[in-house]
């Protein structure tokens, strides 16, 4: 089976198998320092013992002013020796059994909620252009968006240079700590995704106006991270898929991916969704299949939310290493996706919080029959109070936000040395 086979990235990094623990914000690093702490190490030790091919950390924010959530980890240019020590411990804990670990770096841009980051009440979020998040047409949805996120400030070129420096500083800190690489978060509607998209980037300078210019900030970050680290340091990026409901055109996105691939990335992870339309948090359960041969494309699409877009990338860029994340729950579905050529690696998030040792115990465990090697999760339902709120404020992000908080709670249980709640069906 491909799923258990070792593979390599262009930077030379070897992965013992094809299963990647996808990035999940741990929500365990409180203000003011936002540094990784002992509880996080306890949680990551569980994953380190799980037999994964690669671990991606939760998103680490690069700007202390703008976090994605109030408990996010923060990287820093001027980390004290104590902070450097805990980062080193974090890297070595993740990698103590030979699984390489990669830090995901992020700037939320217009998606930094009120209270996440050291800024005054009137300091605006940053974005390529002053385009506000749109949760829907109702008055209440408009008020929620204004109060929580506000209308962002269109970034000056100075702001852009600072953000590039912050990503590079985050990569340097990860490199010096002993992580094997970084993944730039260019998906889920965060700052880099805002630059790439014509819906949120209305600029007409060097950073907007054409697909190539909208990709410019990403290209500069990749080049500067490479210069600041080494040839052997892995640089990946997570991007959103383009589909019929997306405002981005396929041709423009392929042009941007071409430039990103040319800039020298080691992998491209495909996901989807934003705060406005959180597709990444779908809760579909896969059909049960008993052999990879019988899996039809429709079934495969049902198991993996974003595979068909990855297959389009593969057709255009045959050599790029592709991770697809979102929806994978069965060994046979994962194997079929790999065999379809649509991806090289399988990203798994929510199941990794319920079963931190999922690869070792189930997916790669030869004692478990193919048809039993699966992890179907009970859908997380909004509690009644949220249900009423959701009736008042019918935004899709409410359910997705609650799901995310629920699974972050599972990671926190791991950090407390407790077993995650077993929510398998
Ligand atoms: C608690 C939680 C936190 C997440 N945090 C991040 C994150 O920091 N960065 C990211 O790229 N995706 C994040 N995601 C999305 C996952 O990486 C993944 O794309 C999504 O959950 C779909 O995969 P799954 O169906 O295997 O869960 C998060 C998901 C959850 C449940």
UniProtKB/TrEMBL annotation:
Gene3D superfamilies: Aldolase class I. Keywords: Flavoprotein, FMN, Oxidoreductase. One of its GO terms (molecular function) is oxidoreductase activity. The keyword tRNA processing does not apply. InterPro entries: Aldolase_TIM, NADH_flavin_oxidoreductase, OxRdtase_FMN_N. Residues 14-362 form the NADH:flavin oxidoreductase/NADH oxidase N-terminal domain. Belongs to the NADH:flavin oxidoreductase/NADH oxidase family. This is NADH:flavin oxidoreductase/NADH oxidase-like protein. It comes from Hyaloscypha variabilis (strain UAMH 11265 / GT02V1 / F) (Meliniomyces variabilis).
